[in-house]
Design brief:
Mean pLDDT: 93
CATH topology of the largest domain: Rossmann fold
CATH architecture of the largest domain: 3-Layer(aba) Sandwich
Organism: Cucumis melo
Helix content: 40-55%
Bound molecules: adenosine-5'-diphosphate, magnesium ion
Strand content: 15-25%
Strand order of the largest sheet: 1-13-12-11-2-9-10
Order of helices and strands: HEHEHEHHEEEHHEEHEHEHEHEHEH
Subcellular location: Membrane
CATH superfamily of the largest domain: HAD superfamily/HAD-like
Protein name: Copper-transporting ATPase HMA4-like
Number of strands: 13
Number of helices: 13
Shape: elongated
GO molecular function: ATP binding; ATP hydrolysis activity; ATPase-coupled monoatomic cation transmembrane transporter activity; metal ion binding
Keywords: ATP-binding, Membrane, Metal-binding, Nucleotide-binding, Translocase, Transmembrane, Transmembrane helix
Length: 300
């Protein structure tokens, strides 16, 4: 496209709430054949709610809640705040008179898995089954049953492990953004295939994907695996767009032919992307593709 056409398109796109950071993104977007969507915060609202709490073994509610509050207070993950708030409510219900005052040492983030640290010399992990497996925490049949039932209901099960034992869990539900289903079916109608890629587990991912009309899912992906999956999709000559919001999406956004960040997402994702959806509206994926098509066709 000519510089003038690109300038016109950039101006127009900005007024539509789509920030296009370079000429190449504008020239490539219309060729996209596959759009890969991150799940949490991209397809879903990213405002998850805790809908269930469970205790395992003989751990008391107060200890599980304190562990979750102390650890998650250090996390910026979208699950952190709802878990902290719910745990605070639970400990009040279970008779606590004062606020949780536990201190955390050696706080650590495990991307795509969860968070952890030391509380009163005990090792605490808060996150998914995969995180537990990686740290050799035993998943008992009882824990397994709870997580499977949660996942079938499109909930993510956040487990709390204390000194290597699963002590409790939170069922977290993050609903799809309204309008997501229509965007997916529109993309399909113009011959673009859609895929979900997520750090979440396969069962939860599939339950969410089914709900929005996506039938291909890559689950349990860490940030590097997400990027590798994008590269492998590209390797057949396929033009691939990636839509994401998180720190964990930044490699994949950079690896895609067209990286698209949700405006309300993290700065790292926005920096890594070619296109930013300023209104955080998934329909603007279509706007971006359409702008690209109009720009290029005006030149030819
Ligand atoms: P997505 O790829 O869907 O955006 P993330 O990579 O952010 O998801 O997280 C993947 C999974 O890791 C989450 O679904 C959750 O199970 C777990 N996880 C990550 N961070 C946390 C946290 N702070 N607290 C609890 N679970 C977490
Ligand atoms: Mg995300």
């Amino acid at each position: 496209a000519t510089p003038t056409a690109i300038m016109v398109a950039s101006g127009k796109s900005a007024s539509l709430g789509v920030l296009i950071k370079g000429a190449s993104a504008l020239q490539n977007a219309y060729k996209v054949k596959t759009v890969v969507f991150d799940k949490t915060g991209t397809l879903t609202v990213g405002r998850p709610e805790v809908v269930s709490v469970v205790l395992f073994s003989t751990f008391p509610m107060l200890e599980v809640c304190d562990a979750a509050i102390a650890i998650e207070s250090n996390s910026e993950h979208p699950f952190a705040k709802p878990i902290v708030e719910h745990a605070k409510k639970m400990r009040k219900k279970f008779g606590a008179r004062s606020e949780c005052s536990k201190r955390v040492q050696n706080f650590e983030v495990f991307p795509g898995g969860g968070v952890g640290g030391k509380i009163d010399r005990k090792t605490v992990l808060v996150g998914n089954k995969r995180l537990m497996r990686v740290h050799n925490v035993d998943i008992t049949p009882q824990v397994d049953r709870y997580t499977i039932e949660n996942e079938r209901l499109a909930q993510t099960c956040v487990l709390v492990a204390i000194d290597g034992k699963i002590a409790g869990g939170f069922g977290v539900l993050d609903a799809p953004k309204p309008g997501t289903k229509a965007v997916i079916s529109f993309l399909r109608s113009i011959g673009i295939s859609t895929i979900m890629i997520t750090g979440d587990n396969l069962a939860t991912a599939f339950a969410v994907a089914r709900g929005v009309g996506i039938n291909k899912v890559f689950a349990e992906m860490d940030p590097i695996e997400k990027a590798n999956q994008i590269r492998s999709l590209k390797s057949t000559g396929n033009i691939v767009a990636m839509v994401g919001d998180g720190v964990n999406d930044s490699h994949a956004l950079a690896a895609a032919d067209v990286g698209i960040a949700i405006g309300a997402g993290t700065n790292i994702a926005i920096e890594a992307a070619d296109i930013v959806l300023m209104r955080s509206n998934l329909e603007d994926v279509v706007t971006a593709i359409d702008l690209s098509r109009q720009t290029v066709y005006r030149i030819w």
